[in-house]
C-alpha cells in the first residue's frame, strides 16, 4: 500500500471509501496495515476518525482508543465516533467517562455523542447522568432532532421516568415510526405493558402503519399481559399486511400463543413460517416448558435435533428445565454433553440451567461441582439455583450458608433468593436467621411484594411465632388468596381453631377467592378443635356454595373429625357416597378413630383396606393388634401379630431420646 497501485498513492477520499469494506471484513491485521500507512502519510482528522470507527466495528475497541488518544486535533466527530464505538462493544461505563472528559474540555456535543451517551445511561439505568446529557442536548440545540429525542426518550423509559419520556414524545413535531416503536418497545422492556398497548392503539388512530419492529414489541406485550383480544387483533393486522410468515414476526407470534398456552395456534403459526430458524423452534420449546408441558417440549427438542438445525444456548436453557421437572436425568446429561461439544459451557445462563437440572434430578453433587468451578462467574440466578437445589434436597443448613455467602460476595438478593431460602429457615425453625432475612428484604424494598409477605407469614408460623405472622398479615396492604390461606394454615397448625374459623368467615365477607387449600386449612383447624358441626357445614359448603370438588385430603380430614367424635355411621355413609376411591389416608383416619373408641369390628375393615393399598406397612397390623388388646380380645390380638410375621414384615422398633 505504501507505493499504491501503478504508482498511485491512496488519498483521504480513497481511504474513507475503503473503511466500510474493512468493517465488513472484520480483519484487524488489515486495519493495522492501513493504520500504519495513515501514520506515515500524516492524514487529516477525518481519516483518523474513520480508523476509530473501523477498529470499533471490528471488535478491537482498545486499538480504537489508542488512535483516539493519539490524535492531536480531536473534533466533535472524534468524540462521537469513539463513544459510538464503545456502545457498539457494550462498554457503557467508558462512554459516560468520555462524556465527563469531553465536558471538562469544553467539547461540543453532536447528535452521535448525545445518542451514544444517552444509550449508555439507558443501559446503566443512570438517570442523573441521563438528565445531564439531556441538558447538554438542549444547550447545543439538538434536543428536538428526531433521533436524539428518541434516544433520550428511551433512556427515560428505561430509567423508570415514564412521565418525562411521554413528555418528550408529545413534544416531537413529527413522530415517525421509529419514535413510536422506540417508546412502545421501551415501555415493554421496562415493565409498562398497559401503557404500551394504549400507545399502540393511539398509533393506529393516527393512521400510521406499524412496521415489523412495532409489531414485535406489541406481540411481546400481549404475551406478557395475556392480552388475548389485542394480540389476536394485531395478528389479523399482520395477516392483512402479509408479514405474518416473515421469520421475525412468525417467531414472535408463535412465542405469544405458546406463552398463553394456545398451542394449536402456536403450531399453526410455526408451520406457516417460510424459513424457520432456531428462534422459531425456541419459541415453542420455551412455551411448552413454561406451561408445564415438559414432554411436548422434549419431543420438540428431539425434532429440532433430527431436522439437522443446530440448537443455540436459548434452546438449551429452554429444554433443561423440562428435563428437571420431568426428572429425565439421562436426557439432561445428553444435553450436557451437547453443551460441552457446542462450546456453551462458559455461558452463564446455560450453566445456571444445568445446576438447576442436576439439583432437581437429585444429583446435588453434580450441581455443586458445576457451581464451584473456579472459572465460573456467578450471577444472582446461579446462587438462586444452588439455594433452591439445596432446599429441594433437604440440605437446609447448606441453603442458609449459600444465601449468606451470596451476600458476602457482594450480590444483592432478589425476591427469588428470599423465596428460595425461607423454606430452609422454616424447616430448621431458625428464627434469628429468618428475622435477619426479613430485615434484608425490608432494606431491599421487598416488603410491599405480596409473594414476599406470604413466605414470611408462613415462616413465622412454622417457627412458632404466630403472633408475628398475625402482625405481618394485618400490616399487608395487598393480600391475595395465598396470603389468607397461609395465615389460616398457621392458625390450624398451632391449634387456634376459633381464630381460623373467624378468619375463614372474614374471607367470605370480603369476597376473597376461596380454593381447595382454603378449605383444607379450615377443616384441619376444625379437626384439631373438635368443631364437628362447623366442620361438617364447611365441608358440604365446598360443593354446594363454591362448586369446589372435595379432594381425597378433604375427605380424610372430615373422616378424622367425625371419627374423633365416634360418629362411625356418618363416616361409613360418607365413604359409601364418595365419588372417589378412598385412599390410605382415609382408611388410616378411620383406623385411628377405631383405636380411640375401641371399635374392633370397623378397625378390621379399615385394616383390610389398608393392607390392600399398602401391603408392606407393618404399622397397620400393629395398630389392629393394639385395638384388639384394648378390647380384651387377646386371641385376635395374637392373630393380628401372626399376620405381620406371615407377611414377612417386622415392626419398626421405637426409640426414645430420654
TrEMBL record:
Start and stop residues of the PPR repeats: 44-74, 75-109, 176-210, 277-311, 379-413, 480-514
Coiled coil feature spans: none
InterPro entries: E_motif (IPR046848), PPR_At4g14850-like_plant (IPR046960), PPR_rpt (IPR002885), TPR-like_helical_dom_sf (IPR011990)
Keywords, in A-Z order: Repeat
Gene Ontology MF terms: mRNA binding
Transmembrane segments: none
UniProt keyword Repressor present: no
Protein name: Pentatricopeptide repeat-containing protein
